[in-house]
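The protein record quoted in full:
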Amino acid sequence: MSDVSMNLKKRNAEMKNIFLFLWGKTVSMLGTSVYGFAISLYVLSITGSALNYAITIMINILPLIIISPIAGVFADRLPKKLFIIGMDLANGLLFLFLFYISRYESLSLVQIYVSSFFLSVFTSFYDISMEAAKPNITYPESRIKVNSLSKLIDSASAILGPILGGVMIALVDIRLFILMNGISFVMSALSEGFINYEFYLENNRREDDDKKMFVQHVKEGIHYIYASSLLKEAFLLFLILNFLLGFSMNVPLPYIVNEILLLPSKLYGIINAMISIGLIVGALTVEKLMRRISYMTILAYTMVAIAVLVSLLGLPVVLQTYMNEQMHTIYFSIICLLIGMGISYVDIPIITIMQNEIPWHIRGVVFGVSMSTVKLVLPMALLLSGALVSYIPITVLPIIGAIVTLVIFFGFRRRKEDAISVD
């Protein structure tokens, strides 16, 4: 067989892997997003309790914080194919079991809470295993494209999830929706069985990996992040970004739009959707940018740009007498669109850096620890911002968050430059 034919065969095998990966991720992400939104509305409709609604949302989030490091260890020690297929199949069987129960009686709150908990656990194992396996299903030069397409699916699911979830609740019996979701997950698991998870393997696994204790394995992952200056900087940027968005945007933006400027809820929906649209635009354009500019340069400029944009969220309140409803909507839409693009410009390079830098024998636990820490930082930032609203003008909070972010960012870079100059 000629070299040209061999290369063509390898490229076709890679494209098959990418297609099957994207199909499986689309089904998993969209199914989880739609169900999460639909079941929350369902709980609200049958109980009329905002507390029960909030509990349902929290049950979907908390396991991600707790389970991610555990999922990372298992993803490193056992075949990733086993977890990817197994978790999608587990979600499918979970929904089919729910459908079976709902045929004879209405779903109770306990059943909904328990199923939401297991859905979150299974999804955590799936996400970590897939992130750890992703670099091994393509060539290194294709990772940027795959990460961009993966981010595109995440963003599209975030947009379509509430829309389809609302439609499902309005037009489709919840039991039929649960059945459809179960079948979709089973089909996704079947398709993922045809992915070659050893298409591109680095020969860097050590013989003692499986003998390590759980805590030792987690410690090694944490130490690896700390020991690598590149990973440490990327990880810190990830944390800073999530703190900034949680503190300066997630709480102040809806309060400013809905409570101070009194914009209609449909306009807030448009403004909020622009973030996801920005994520999509960023995912579609970041690959070309990353091929021309270094990862860390993109991250540095983007972090500064996001901080500046966030600090401007309170400006319409100051100029309230000079701006009408349409101008407010356009202003916030542009800001949110640009912030969404910036988030993609940060997320995708960081994920690519981690894939390129982390050895495959600890990739799962490093991703797990990273995701767990980031998920923990966000609610802490939300609580802090919410607590300060009573003491600090809401228009000042975004500025405070931006200043703190820039001080930490430039302080870290200064220490890094000083360390390099000393060496």
Summary: The chain has two domains: 7-196, 212-423. Residues 7-196 form a domain with the Growth Hormone; Chain: A; fold (CATH 1.20.1250.20).
